[in-house]
């Protein structure tokens, strides 16, 4: 060590230690409380956090996930504990509540079990609390919002919480984001929730909540995302939309609502409209005043809806996913659907559509799935469909299509599932491209279709030789795929499949 450094050290060391010791002595008690709380927390874990070790790293403010801050009048204290996705297991002990200056508590994407200690709800400085994607269970505390005046973000989603949503939730008056989706919560929604004037995002989907939906929802004028799908709500969907002009995501799918839907005209900014699996014999709204120029997802499947594809839909130029399957829709398929440049999923199956497949569908360059099965479509399969260069699944089965299978379809190099069974097609089944990989069942039920073979022309084998039951392969475009696709661009499917995977059944609509 040179003279200069030695000199500096001699001068500075007392200075530094003086500063620290004054600080330590004045706030020794509160600081040691933080240490005690952290050690208590880690002693209840079944796993260890490597660098949380007082002997090797005495300053706990440097431990992973721990952030300290110098607070006026309080001193340097732990303000953030962020241990998301760190594979922790065990339970959370009461000692954690000793971190009384905590602002952010994030323990999401771990394997925590048991119930949350009641005293955590006294941490009155908390602004963000994220317990999502764990194995927590038990009822949600009835005192949940007794002390949380500053709580902005509250996530309990994808756990095993049960019982009802406590009335007291309405007292978290600063709340902007609330997600309790993916639990076992039941009974009706407390009215108090509609007092949360700052609420932007409310996720309650995938529970067992029931009752009617109060028209008080319409008072949440800051609401941008609202998802109560996959519950047991019923009754008339009240006209709540006049007050919800900022709404972008509205998903009430898989409940038992009835509605007129014309009221939606107020929500011009909607990007996701999920109404599937509700209703009973209602008419498709045809209103001239409906206009959703930002709509990306429109899901109104499995709802026994009557009528035809409405004209207002042609204004939804941003549409990426359109699901009108399993209804009683009639009329022809409008050719303007071919103008939806961003469309990647189109399901119009199981309706009573008549008429031709529009040639304009060849313009759907981004389409991955086209399902038109179980309708009454007639006319030829347009050769232009070879323009759907990204297409992976094409199902035209159970229609009245005639003519030949266009040779141009061999250009669809991503096509992995193709079905034209049970139509009135004739002629030679194309060879080359993906066509050599499709099973016989894809072509059955068309008396005039045959395969080319080297020993001359052979009729296609009779139906009895089918390799597999017909619908087995179609499971890919059943609900798991549907939910996956939906969640994909709304939220992030990556979270589900990449980061943990220990919630396989609850992963459909993560957030
Ligand atoms: C802390 O680190 C020391 C030295 O590496 C080690 O002996 C001790 O077991 C560690 N303590 C804990 C609780 O991991
Ligand atoms: C130490 O903490 C107490 C309260 O816990 C506070 O009143 C005091 O101002 C703090 N001192 C410093 C130097 O931050
Ligand atoms: C909590 O941490 C995870 C990463 O582990 C992150 O994805 C998530 O956004 C965090 N939660 C909040 C509310 O910031
Ligand atoms: C909410 O807080 C108010 C006063 O702050 C109190 O009167 C009321 O009882 C609380 N409501 C619930 C359900 O705890
Ligand atoms: C509609 O969305 C756009 C873009 O996200 C936003 O700028 C605008 O403020 C929104 N309008 C309303 C009424 O919320
Ligand atoms: C068609 O939809 C009806 C309900 O409208 C359903 O019961 C039936 O199973 C569906 N059929 C097919 C082949 O998907």
Automatic annotation (TrEMBL):
Its main location: membrane. It comes from Cajanus cajan (Pigeon pea). PANTHER family: OS07G0466500 PROTEIN, OS10G0469600 PROTEIN. One of its GO terms (cellular component) is plasma membrane. It is a peripheral membrane protein; Single-pass type I membrane protein. The chain crosses the membrane at residues 479-498. Keywords: Cell membrane, Cell wall, Disulfide bond, Glycoprotein, Leucine-rich repeat, Membrane, Plant defense, Receptor, Repeat, Secreted, Signal, Transmembrane, Transmembrane helix. SMART domains: LRR_TYP. It comes from the Eukaryota. Coiled coil: none annotated. Belongs to the polygalacturonase-inhibiting protein family. Belongs to the RLP family. GO terms for biological process: defense response. This is Phytosulfokine receptor 1. Residues 32-69 form the Leucine-rich repeat-containing N-terminal plant-type domain. Residues 1-21 form the signal peptide. Residues 145-280 form the Disease resistance R13L4/SHOC-2-like LRR domain. It is found in: Cell membrane; Membrane; Secreted, Cell wall.
